[in-house]
């Protein structure tokens, strides 16, 4: 693994975007996993700027949204909508390229299995962009012993389908982003704690993982 530290959120965003873009530039049909969190917005801003400036072409890439709410009475793809505003509306990514694990409760297991198989059929993820959350979760996995592959998850009354720890550990290049004081405790636990304290801690064992932090995120280290 490697750890990169920058002064501020904008610099972190540029660095993470550059690493992610390098996979698409070197392999246009790369399989890319994407997370959504407010800490990733500087990354998506940089990726959008690269696309707008003609530096990045997404037309052959395969994009996998790594978690989504189970559908409710509104049937909204809530994370997909947020990612649409943050990135997809500003790029040339088509619906055919973009996979979302969206289902209702009755379909959840079937859709989760199908989504995992779709990732495997793509040869696994070449890169995955992942946020450090305040609660230390890996996507929607709150516990290190969660289902290792794509699976349904319930937290505080909300249902999700989320990629599991093994799905991410099998990614060639996980890019983990921590920005701001709000995630400083989670970064401390992830980097200094045992593998049983945080699902994110397992990524320290991934030889290809890159952790990118701003100075506020590492203030407790």
Description:
- The chain is built from 6 helices and 10 strands.
- It has helices spanning 9-26, 41-52, 78-86, 108-121, 165-169, 184-192, and strands at residues 2-6, 31-34, 62-65, 67-69, 98-99, 127-131, 151-155, 158-162, 173-178, 210-214.
- The strands form 2 sheets. A 7-stranded parallel sheet has the order 1-10-9-6-2-3-5, with helices on one face.
- α1 crosses α2.
- The mean pLDDT is 92.
Mean pLDDT, rounded to whole units? 92
Strand count, sense and barrel status of the largest sheet are: 7 strands, parallel
Strand order, largest beta sheet: 1-10-9-6-2-3-5
Secondary structure category: alpha/beta
Number of strands: 10
Cα gyration radius (Å): 16 Å
Secondary structure: helix percent: 25-40%
Shape annotation:
globular
Descriptive terms for the model:
single chain, 221 residues, seven-stranded parallel β-sheet, three-stranded antiparallel β-sheet, 10 strands
């Amino acid at each position: 693994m490697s750890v990169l530290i920058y002064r501020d959120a904008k610099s972190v965003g540029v660095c993470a975007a550059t690493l992610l873009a390098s996979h698409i530039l070197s392999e246009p049909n790369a399989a890319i996993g994407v997370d959504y969190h407010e800490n990733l917005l500087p990354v998506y801003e940089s990726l959008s700027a690269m696309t707008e400036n003609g530096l990045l072409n997404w037309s052959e890439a395969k994009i996998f949204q790594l978690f989504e709410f189970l559908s409710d009475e509104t049937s909204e793809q809530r994370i997909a909508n947020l990612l649409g505003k943050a990135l997809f509306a500003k790029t040339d990514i088509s619906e055919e390229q973009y996979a979302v694990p969206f289902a209702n409760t009755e379909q959840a297991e079937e859709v989760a299995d199908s989504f995992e198989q779709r990732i495997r059929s793509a040869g696994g993820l070449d890169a995955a962009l992942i946020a450090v959350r305040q609660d230390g979760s890996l996507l929607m996995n709150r516990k290190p012993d969660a289902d290792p592959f794509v699976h349904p998850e319930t937290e505080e009354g909300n249902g999700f389908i989320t990629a599991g720890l093994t799905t991410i550990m099998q990614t060639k290049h996980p890019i983990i982003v921590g920005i701001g004081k709000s995630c400083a405790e989670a970064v401390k636990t992830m980097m200094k704690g045992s593998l049983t304290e945080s699902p994110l801690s397992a990524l320290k064992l991934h030889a290809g993982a890159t952790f990118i932090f701003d100075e506020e995120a590492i203030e407790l280290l």
